[in-house]
Write a structure and sequence with these properties.
Elements lengths: L1 E5 L13 H13 L4 E3 L8 H10 L6 E6 L1 E4 L4 E4 L3 H15 L4 E6 L8 H13 L3 E7 L3 H4 L8 E5 L8 H9 L3 E5 L35 H18 L3 H10 L6 E5 L3 H9 L7 H9 L6
Parallel strand pairs: 1-2, 1-10, 2-3, 3-6, 6-7, 7-8, 8-9, 9-10
Antiparallel strand pairs: 4-5
Helix pairs in contact: 1-2, 1-9, 2-3, 7-8, 7-10
Length: about 300
């Protein structure tokens, strides 16, 4: 199992504005702490996240970049739409290669199914791109098992949300682990909720920070998460670690997950995230955290 830097925040949109120096320092901090895997997507910051990685990681061959395609931006409507057509894939790939300043993508993932394109056509296109040397491996994100099953020998990477609250993706992660996929878990801190630093009754996200519209940060839902957060807080205090450390450590103890995608907005957050890899949990502690949010809804 290894830690991957999630780079959605580096796009300077979904988690609020972030200046270029801070973004670059965050990437450099990851490299300084032996993190050599970076996860992004062409939609993050409308390409800015990829551009930041392109600036920070050019001429480095020891790193792995995972990027995603399929979510597009409609400039007229100011909203997103999905497109995983062959034409859409090739257009997205050329843009990502340019922004990342690379000749090939290490891991290229379908971000979301668009609900209309035949996946056989998608796989055929991705195979051609692989033969052309433009991508090394491909997979998918946010897919259902029934969509993946016909292509079990084609995809090699799956990325799904997974954390103490959001565990409904466990069956598909187990299915993929059994079939020797690299299983990447994201949203491990539930967009910051599991860090304990936000008071849901008073927190206000500004600008383009999409958490202001999130179900998990609705002040009227605070009572649903209180018991689970209290459990996490008390155990973290007992083990003399932060809640964020413990929430990440919880996922490291899941054998069906091979890669943890954890975001950061600063050098300090990167350093904090790496500490979680040193935390060991007993079976009883894992069970306690497993059940912490069972009665949330």
């Amino acid at each position: 199992m290894h830690l991957c830097l999630g780079c959605v925040a580096l796009g300077g949109y979904d988690y609020g504005a972030l200046d270029e120096k801070t973004c670059l320092d965050t990437v450099y901090a990851a490299l300084d702490n032996n993190i050599t895997h970076f996860d992004t997507a062409n939609i993050y910051g409308l390409g800015r996240s990829e551009e930041i990685l392109g600036l920070a990681l050019q001429n480095r061959n020891e790193i792995i970049i995972t990027t995603k395609f399929g979510v597009c931006w409609d400039h007229n409507q100011k909203t997103t739409y999905k497109d995983i057509s062959s034409k859409g894939i090739r257009c997205a790939l050329e843009g990502s290669l340019k922004r990342l300043k690379r000749d090939t993508i290490d891991q290229y993932l379908i971000h979301w199914h668009d609900g209309k394109t035949n996946l056989s056509e998608v796989v055929e296109t991705l195979d051609k791109l692989k033969d052309e040397g433009k991508i090394k491996a491909y997979g998918c994100s946010n897919f259902k098992e029934e969509h993946m099953s016909p292509f079990v020998n084609k995809f090699s990477i799956i990325q799904m949300p997974y954390n103490m609250i959001q565990k409904e993706t466990e069956p598909i992660l187990r299915f993929c682990a059994k079939n020797n996929y690299e299983t990447m878990a994201y949203n491990i801190l539930e967009r910051g909720l599991l860090t304990g630093k936000y008071d849901l009754r008073t927190v206000k996200f500004l600008g383009t920070d999409t958490r202001q519209h999130s179900f998990f940060f609705d002040k009227n839902k605070e009572r649903f998460f209180k018991t689970g957060l209290d459990t996490l807080r008390l155990l973290a205090k007992d083990k003399k670690v932060t809640m964020a450390n413990l929430a990440i450590a919880y996922v490291t103890h899941k054998s069906f997950i091979s890669c943890l995608v954890v975001g950061a907005k600063s050098r300090e957050q990167v350093l904090e995230n790496t500490k979680a890899l040193q935390i060991r949990l007993t079976k009883e502690e894992c069970l306690l955290l497993d059940n912490a949010f069972n009665n949330t809804f």
